């Protein structure tokens, strides 16, 4: 705390931008009302800072030059699009300061959070739900440190959102290009490596256009070999969470690594089936189907909920993109019917379990 730099301060009951502020006046933090230091210089953008050892608790992130510059550019970007952006609005109700707010007349206000420093999953969730619980919409735009690297699962987990037109996506703000970079149609190849498309949008309208083309996309065909090998590696390394999943298989005399190929059958869907969680869920559904000939509707419901609960720790992408459980269950049912693991009957389903392999080598021999 206290290391935060800001553009906006209170001055005689008004809010003043640091670039218009004069030295030797008294400026105060709009959140904690402590006196601030005004810093102006040739080497950095004018800004306010708390005194050392400040106890201000409304913080966004310790700001770098990159962060200040990005915020200025984002506000400009919004102004060109006819918004009237507001810097650093403080929401005392939930103790947060938004980087840039775009007030909207007929829809919830939109917030740009420009994230340059590392941040934990929990903090992103907390800030996001802080806004959303108060009827605000938030877009996280990631800074340079996130752009230089290839997209990683941990970033996806924290920041990915879902839209039918672009699938799973992450947003970036490029201070160099002065535009929003979007990585979209993000897919997991099965071993944790990600594929995606990239586009730079130098105007708000270009950005919005991307979201207007709604279309279904087929699931990315996952690389089943990589997926099984990864599973095998995790189990051999003694990972407890994976071993807990494997234990679900023992009573049925099955081996998780030998899951049927049906698990990897692609569906045509507008939802992103990505991440190992989705495939683990399918495998766990089949494990539980084993030994059943018929299921009533409530039995089926229970079974599918149980499989989802077991795979939940691995379904982080689906969770962070906030897709409802119901939508997933519908997709899982669609997949079971398409692969004929289930057939619809008058009062439920009949089950036909596909072949399981004994282990990786068995699968390799029979399919390779
Ligand atoms: Zn303060």
Automatic annotation (TrEMBL):
Q: Where is the Competence protein CoiA-like N-terminal domain?
A: 19-59
Q: Which residues form a coiled coil?
A: none
- Species per Swiss-Prot/TrEMBL record: Levilactobacillus bambusae
**Signal sequence bounds:** none
The Competence protein CoiA nuclease-like domain extends over: 63-186
> Could you identify this protein by its name?
Competence protein
